Amino acid sequence: MNQPSSLPPCADAPLAVGPAPRRNTRQVSVQWGNNVVNVGGSAPIVVQSMTNTDTADAIATAIQVKELAQAGSEVVRITVNTPDAAREVPAIRQQLDRMGIDTPLVGDFHYNGHKLLTQFPECAQALSKYRINPGNMGAGNRREDNFAQMIEVACRYNKPVRIGVNWGSLDSTLMARMMDENSRRREPWSAQAVMREALVVSAISNAQRAEALGLPGNAIVLSCKVSHVQDLIAVYQNLASRCDYPLHLGLTEAGMGSKGIVASTAALAVLLQQGIGDTIRISLTPEPGGDRTREVVVAQEILQTMGLRAFTPMVVACPGCGRTSSTVFQHLADSIQAYLREQMPVWRTRYPGVERMNVAVMGCVVNGPGESQHADIGISLPGTGEVPSAPVYVDGRRTVTLKGDHIAQEFQAIVEHYVEQRYGAGA
């Protein structure tokens, strides 16, 4: 048998692991009462979401905001599109306050935001931030006046704004001008490239105008939303290199189910790895009757699996194969993961640091013991034809072996005891 003459040379230094340092930005504070959510600067990347209820239905909207907040959304955006919706915003805020939910609300305005904010000052005050789309504010002087009106309200009530440009509603006048300029280039850009440049120019120029109108520079967040992954990456790389405003990331109209999750993750992971992005939203289209909080869970899992933040204990589980014809480990992994997430609203304050705990639920002896030893707490269930016993590992040491019909309940009890001992007051 031929043997290699020598081993490959060792690397001079360990391979670098982890995202690039976050880009330096201004820091914007979004506040309600004593709850201050900082965006940008040295603050953690913020998770936000948006309701899909009729804002004119104050009770339904407040209930959904509460659900999103309890799932972990640190800021929640609500549509404010009609006088009836604007009229109910203070009632939504009051209902949330009565329920003990101090999550800041962002008003999403299009077309008539200048009117609603001036006609309903209680709405303007109850919101913690305004989202302005400069492409949906009219044309010419009317657009300039409407924009100025909204900025004046933001200045009056000391509210930050997100200037959110979207390729589905890009300022047509700006786009036409830039296409004309492009046609005079010696080597014209593609229409897609012009569109990407127009998004960046629109966002930055409107932010600069807002500052000229009196809005502090540390009260502005920018976003440039598109629905194609490569376009989004290119736009935000460009935008990040040309300004120091905090950036809100999100793939607009991402889609339903796995497509929306995969597309959003593919785009945002690249940018986050490059240190770009200060707040994120995953714009999933829910299935009929689907749970709106799923977009919050996906956003958290993107950040946590990348090592950028920790929100809830993570469960490692094998995919299963011919060695695991039993589905016991699948049911146990699912129930443990659901249990951990359900406990987090209480555990978050009672057990500081528990969100970084790792739990392994494995299905056979191939990788089961090893993965369980690498986790904080793990269980290796028997595969097909294996001895019907399940060793449990705590902090890398085998502590007990479970058998019988109540393994799931017994393992959950072990997890509860471990959390109390390691993260409780007496830890």
UniProtKB/TrEMBL annotation:
Q: Which UniProt keywords apply?
A: 4Fe-4S, Iron, Iron-sulfur, Isoprene biosynthesis, Metal-binding, Oxidoreductase
Q: Which reaction does it catalyse?
A: (2E)-4-hydroxy-3-methylbut-2-enyl diphosphate + oxidized [flavodoxin] + H2O + 2 H(+) = 2-C-methyl-D-erythritol 2,4-cyclic diphosphate + reduced [flavodoxin]
Q: In which pathway does it act?
A: Isoprenoid biosynthesis; isopentenyl diphosphate biosynthesis via DXP pathway; isopentenyl diphosphate from 1-deoxy-D-xylulose 5-phosphate: step 5/6
EC number of the protein: 1.17.7.3
Task: List required co-factors.
Answer: [4Fe-4S] cluster
Tell me the superkingdom of the source.
Bacteria
Q: What class of enzyme is it?
A: oxidoreductase
Q: Where is the IspG C-terminal domain?
A: 315-416
Positions contributing to [4Fe-4S] cluster binding: 318, 321, 364, 371
Q: How is the cofactor bound?
A: Binds 1 [4Fe-4S] cluster.
Residue segments, region Disordered? 1-22
Stretches assigned to the IspG TIM-barrel domain: 36-299
Function field = Converts 2C-methyl-D-erythritol 2,4-cyclodiphosphate (ME-2,4cPP) into 1-hydroxy-2-methyl-2-(E)-butenyl 4-diphosphate.
- Give the similarity note: Belongs to the IspG family.
Q: What is this protein called?
A: 4-hydroxy-3-methylbut-2-en-1-yl diphosphate synthase (flavodoxin)
Source species, please?
A: Neopusillimonas maritima
Query: Which lineage ranks, top first, belong to the organism behind this chain?
Result: Bacteria, Pseudomonadati, Pseudomonadota, Betaproteobacteria, Burkholderiales
